[in-house]
From TrEMBL:
CDD domains: SgaA_N_like (cd07247). SUPFAM superfamilies: Glyoxalase/Bleomycin resistance protein/Dihydroxybiphenyl dioxygenase (SSF54593). It comes from the Bacteria. Signal peptide: none annotated. Residues 19-133, 147-262 form the VOC domain. This is VOC family protein.
């Protein structure tokens, strides 16, 4: 993680291209998943675009913060939080993804009047979304408990895949100057927006390269107890880092995410 605060796109304006602007989760049990996150983060839910099936948007204090959709019964896809990155032209971005060795699995397609979207994967197989704003601007609030605050790619080697994202989204890079840490912070206009962490053979065999979403909480340890009580599981127990206290968990369907109380 890094001290990324205050992403563009809040307060009724569109997100700057390349910045994470939304996170979405596709699950089998919509009702149970809403109960879990509603209890954990205080989310309420309202209907969203139904182009890919039943879909709701999570709302916190009147602001939309995340999406949850229904997987078709015959689709056995990984249950995972997926970050969406802002684009002024999702069709052009999708073409660039393909040209750079990535894959476009869904779209580009219109999500009603909300915007235009695609779901893609980088050359290593990590899945991400692309969002072109229309009526739906994306995440409306961040850096308060119950909101996504950071997105990080876990992959085998940071340098090779970073070139893909730099070309697709126009990022600048800031590598960590350490022989022991393989980490690159991605920047837009000099501001940190996401990270790439190379973990080599420590990458889980059952998951492969993947994006991880960090959700801000008021108290990591208390939220961890909530996760367990609500049927989730702990992947990594709480640890203190220069950027705050962090724990990694899964929801009852197995979607991994991290809880963080950031150091301000």
């Amino acid at each position: 993680m890094t001290e990324a605060r205050g992403p563009a796109g809040l307060n009724g304006t569109a997100h700057t291209p390349g910045t994470p602007c939304w996170v979405s989760l596709m699950v089998h049990g919509m009702a149970a998943t809403q109960e879990f996150y509603g209890a954990l983060f205080g989310w309420k839910f309202q209907p969203g675009p139904q182009q890919l099936g039943p879909y709701v948007r999570a709302v916190l204090d009147g602001h939309e913060v995340a999406g949850i959709g229904q997987l078709p019964p015959d689709r056995h896809l990984p249950i995972a939080w997926t970050p969406y990155f802002a684009s002024d032209d999702v069709d052009l971005t999708a073409e660039t993804v393909r040209a750079c060795g990535g894959t476009v699995g869904v779209g580009p397609l219109d999500a009603g009047d909300a915007g235009r979207m695609a779901i893609a994967s980088d050359p290593s197989g990590a899945v991400f979304g692309i969002w072109q704003t229309a009526a739906h601007l994306g995440t409306g609030i961040t850096d308060v408990p119950g909101t996504p605050t950071w997105n990080e790619l876990f992959t085998r080697d940071s340098a090779s895949v970073a070139k893909f994202y730099d070309t697709v989204f126009g990022y600048g890079e800031e590598p960590v100057a350490s022989a022991d840490v393989d980490y690159i912070t991605l920047h837009i206009k000099g501001r940190p927006v996401a990270g790439i962490r190379g973990v080599g053979h420590a990458l889980p065999r059952d998951r492969g390269p993947h994006w991880m979403t960090y959700f801000e909480v008021a108290d990591v340890d208390a939220s961890l107890t909530g996760v367990i009580d609500l049927g989730g599981h702990v992947l990594k127990t709480p640890r203190d880092t220069p950027h705050g206290r962090i724990a990694t968990v899964t929801d009852p369907e197995g979607a991994a995410f991290s809880l963080v109380r950031t150091s301000h």
